[in-house]
Amino acid sequence: MSDKISNFLKTFKGTLSLAACILVVSELAFYFYHDDTTIRENLGFCPCIFNASKTALWGFWSKPWGILTNAFVHVSNDHLFDNILFFLFFGGIIESALGSKKFVYIAFFSILISSILIFPIQFFYAQNDCSGTCGGIGASLLVYALSSFFLMWFMIEFILKRNPLPKNKALWVVYFAALLIILVEVYLLTTNSEHLPGFVSGILIYLSALLLHAI
Question: What is the pLDDT of residues 77-93, one digit of tens each?
Fold first, then answer.
């Protein structure tokens, strides 16, 4: 039993460590900052309305650390735990397939690139309030990035390259569930653009890694 637990922790050490970090920092933010508005002001990009105006960039220049700490912005504990759940799901799939080191790089660049993409995308899809991702950004973008990365990896590996399919039936149940979740995500993107930067960044990261022969 101890060997199984040890192997499990070793296989998913990247996902579990980052999930724990997001959980702890987010809960500390709730404790010290008391409400979502002050959390956005200290960890996110913008303290007020995020729209297509030039002043929207001020949140970035005045708080450059927000390009990474925005991943800890959550509007509630429910929002936090939803993100943690889906992060563990998609992160676990990617880490088990590609290894912990590559997963950490993927997660880091997912946060970084999606945070940068929020500005041009928000320019075309202006929001008039602080709700959702647009208010302070948030870990939802990381989840969307990992899901689109998995989608690209799945299509390239098993459809275009025609690699042998895994014999583990349980793994295919997980893959099928992941694809269903992604279908729902894509549908939600058609009605709400707030998570689009994350989805786009996951695709860009996979294509870049493919061109660099990193995966």
Answer: 888 888 898 899 999 99
Taking each helix axis from N to C end, the angle separating 13-33 and 2-11, rounded to the nearest 10 degrees, works out to: 70
Q: CATH number for the domain including 169?
A: 1.20.1540.10
Cα gap 183→193, rounded to integer Å: 15
| Paired tokens of 56 | 């929207």
Q: Are 149 and 207 in contact (CB under 8 A)?
A: no
**Residue 80 CA from chain centroid, whole number:** 12
- Over the stretch 188-209, which tens digit does the pLDDT of each residue have? 766 666 678 888 999 999 999 9
Q: In the prediction, which pLDDT does 31 show?
A: 78
- Reported as a pLDDT band with limits 50, 70 and 90, residue 107 is very high
Q: Which residues contact 136 (CB under 8 A, 6 or more apart)?
A: 36, 39, 40, 43, 44, 45, 46, 66, 70, 73, 130
* Angstrom distance (rounded) from CA 207 to CA 151: 12
State the residue range of the domain holding 149.
Answer: 2-211
